């Protein structure tokens, strides 16, 4: 009997997670839609929703007016008062956000820095920001954990940053000082892999099972892979380091380094330089590129687009994705002329693997890494909501 009871409880916990993940990733749902999506019966769904509501994880509200006969099904929505703290340390700034169940960024802050952050300094900044939010923007909210998106090689099994070359971090247990400073569980991951997950769940790659994602940030270019609906991390979790590949540059006049890698040639700082900017957040950089009308800016954007198109054609030939999503400044390069960039990639790719391919900028824009980091921090809650 005890074994049977444990088995029943295990099934219930799994079903609770399924319902919570559904409303978290798909938004507010009627009980009837939850019943149809999960295959559970109505009374079971009612019980699960009641338990999640009692735990403060979802909210039930009356539906809007409908012409259907009979009592309409209540709407179940994820609670905006359950949040994860998301952190993205970079070479020029640190961004911290609070992301609620449902994927909305409730509050965020970007602090520019004029030096390379250490893991300990990162932890102190996050703790200070969180303390301020707890008394104001997040007063009364339940904070469940911290997710950190690092431009680095991050070991999957324990979250140790093996190498963040631009930050100067090597074999750094970044989670430890953050856990001590915030008294919260911490999950650390590669920024581009987390960005890929965010775009797959909530953004431009939603509905696609085979995704190549490239993230362009201040530290360079990283990538994430989703194949057959599964995130691909490789043996140690280091897959997707697109920026460290040697680019195929068809015209020597486009080369800026003697033997540089992709992120040496396709570079955020080169765009800032030609725009005459010392630093900028993503919205400012995008606006500056859109408004620039000088030949120097047009030439640099064109040069980077040509090199990037060749690199992506190789990804198309090797991985045959359904969609390529480009985040950060890479998305800005595409936005300059989406149709022209699509044609340039196809010019260098084999026709068969390029059939049906979509290439698009990240839909979550500057929120993509924060949402991805928060998703990692919410993982334990979504797997077992009442643990």
Automatic annotation (TrEMBL):
Organism from which the protein derives: Microbacterium betulae
InterPro entries given in the database record: ATPase_NBD, ROK, Tscrpt_reg_IclR_N, WH-like_DNA-bd_sf, WH_DNA-bd_sf
Pfam families: HTH_IclR (PF09339), ROK (PF00480)
Molecular-function GO terms, alphabetical: DNA binding
Domain HTH iclR-type: 18-60
One GO term (biological process): regulation of DNA-templated transcription
Source species, domain of life: Bacteria
Family of the protein in this entry: Belongs to the ROK (NagC/XylR) family.
Coiled coil: none
This protein's name: ROK family transcriptional regulator
């Amino acid at each position: 009997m005890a074994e049977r009871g444990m088995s029943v409880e295990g099934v219930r916990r799994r079903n609770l997670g399924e319902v919570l993940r559904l409303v978290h990733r798909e938004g507010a749902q009627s009980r009837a839609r939850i019943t149809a999506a999960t295959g559970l019966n109505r009374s079971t769904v009612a019980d699960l929703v009641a338990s999640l509501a009692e735990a403060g994880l979802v909210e039930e509200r009356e539906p809007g007016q409908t012409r259907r006969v009979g009592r309409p099904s209540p709407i179940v929505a994820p609670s905006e008062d359950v949040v994860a703290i998301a952190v993205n340390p970079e070479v020029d700034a640190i961004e911290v956000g609070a992301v609620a169940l449902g994927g909305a960024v409730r509050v965020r802050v970007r602090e520019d820095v004029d030096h390379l952050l250490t893991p300990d300094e990162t932890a102190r900044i996050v703790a200070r920001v969180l303390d301020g939010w707890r008394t104001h923007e997040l007063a009364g909210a339940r904070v469940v954990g911290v997710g950190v998106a690092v431009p680095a090689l991050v070991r999957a099994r324990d979250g140790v940053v093996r190498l963040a070359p631009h930050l100067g971090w090597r074999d750094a247990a970044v989670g430890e000082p953050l856990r001590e400073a915030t008294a919260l569980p911490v999950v650390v991951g590669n920024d581009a892999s987390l960005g890929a997950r965010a775009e797959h769940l909530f953004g431009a790659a939603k509905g696609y099972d085979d995704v190549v994602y490239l993230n362009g940030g201040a530290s360079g270019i990283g990538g994430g892979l989703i194949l057959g609906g599964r995130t691909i991390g490789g043996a140690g979790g280091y897959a997707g380091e697109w920026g460290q590949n040697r680019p195929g540059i068809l015209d020597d006049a486009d080369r800026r380094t003697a033997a540089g890698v992709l992120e040496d040639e396709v570079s955020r700082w080169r765009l800032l330089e030609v725009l005459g900017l010392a630093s900028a957040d993503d919205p400012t950089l995008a606006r500056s590129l859109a408004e620039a009308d000088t030949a120097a800016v047009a030439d640099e954007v064109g040069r980077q687009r040509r090199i990037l198109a060749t690199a992506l054609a190789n990804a198309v030939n090797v991985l045959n994705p359904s969609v390529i999503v480009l985040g950060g400044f890479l998305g800005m390069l595409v936005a300059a002329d989406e149709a022209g960039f699509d044609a340039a990639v196809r010019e260098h790719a084999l026709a068969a693997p390029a059939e049906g391919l979509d290439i698009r900028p990240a839909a979550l824009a500057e929120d993509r890494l924060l949402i991805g980091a928060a998703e990692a921090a919410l993982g334990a809650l979504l797997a077992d909501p009442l643990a």
